[in-house]
Amino acid sequence: MPKDNSRRLFADLIQQASTYYGNWTPNQTVEVGDYGILNRETAEFEKEGSIYDEDFRPDLAIHDQYPVEKTEPDDQYIVVSRGGKVQSFDAKFGAEYPGIVQSTIKGRWQFGRGRGAVVVLHKPMELVIKNRSKLLPHLTEALQGKALVESVYKCPMYALVLTQKSDMGSDVAVGLDIAKVGGATLKGHWNYYTSSGVWRSGGEDGGATYYPLYTLRTPKPPNFLARLLGHRGPGEPLEMPEGEDGFETYQPPWNVLNDEGEEYTPSDEGEASDDE
After folding, report:
1. What mean pLDDT is reported for the chain?
2. Cα–Cα distance between 14 and 177 in angstroms, integer?
């Protein structure tokens, strides 16, 4: 059977648009402080451990000194990949899809011939490592070659879409109706439409937790750190220049992807030239 590269393409499109990796399987738990690798084929984060494990650098007292910090929840958070243009809800669309137009949270976008992705979150909360700029310089050696989950968006309701390639482009719309009793949110109902694409949504009962977005960082290469820090004597404390923590954004482990989620290779460029 052919490979399904949807998850990888979705993660890639969202990461390019927001720096957050899109998680096509948001019921898969991703926690702040986890470290490991991003699977090159499936785009799923593969945990190898956590900086909050008791046996990981106990000398730093990470759990106590650098705990996971919660931010205030947003009402909504939306990420739209490149090429997505906001569209209005005209009378014709409203007549055909009244559930979307009448929703509490809603949006409509038009994508061109290339594939696009959308993430819509209700009441998302971002979790981050508190005082991470002070902690990370101490982890450059221990996490060399690994990806560290620096922040995570978790939420009770989400909708994801990945459009299909179409010569006519793709029209995408999503809406979320929120049911409330006495001011308390009880549940929601997703309404969505796409002229060409696949959808995934969850949390309509409001009782689950999902992890649709997360950021990954990795220590800079040893040769860079050596030049940055110079030669330190034994036992000298690790001190980074102001504004530097020794980490950088973790880049996807795959090459540039085409609209099928497959990696471009030098031979692809040669074949394109021959066809012209």
Report:
1. 88
2. 24
Cross-sheet strand order for the sheet of 170-181? 85-86, 105-111, 170-181, 184-194
The residue segments making up the domain with residue 97 are: 6-275
Per-residue pLDDT at 178 exceeds 60 = yes
pLDDT of residue 165: 84
Model pLDDT, residue 173: 96
In a domain, 1, yes or no: no
Question: In the structure encoding, which two tokens stand for residue 13, read together?
Answer: 């499109």
Which pTM does this prediction carry? 0.87
Percent pLDDT > 70 in the chain is: 85
- Tokens 């648009």 belong to 17
Which pairs from 2-5 meet CB under 8 Å and 24+ separation?
A: 3/41, 5/257, 5/260, 5/261, 5/262
User: CA 191 to CA 103: how far, in whole Å?
Assistant: 8
pLDDT band, very low/low/confident/very high, at 267 (cuts 50, 70, 90)? low
In-domain check, residue 79: yes
Lowest mean pLDDT: which of 89-98, 123-132, 177-186, 195-204? 177-186
Q: Report how many domains make up the chain.
A: 1
Strand partners of residue 171: 110
Closest CA to 149 of 246, 215, 61: 215
- H helix runs in the chain, sequence order: 6-18, 62-65, 91-96, 98-101, 132-135, 222-229, 266-275
Torsion angles phi and psi, residue 229, rounded to 5: -95, -20
Q: Decide if 143 is inside a domain.
A: yes
In this predicted structure, the answer to whether residue 275 has a pLDDT above a threshold of 90 is: no
Domain assignment of residue 73, yes or no: yes
- Residue 154, phi then psi, degrees to nearest 5: -120, 150
* Tokens of residue 169, six digits: 């482009």
Distance CA 200, CA 41 (A): 20
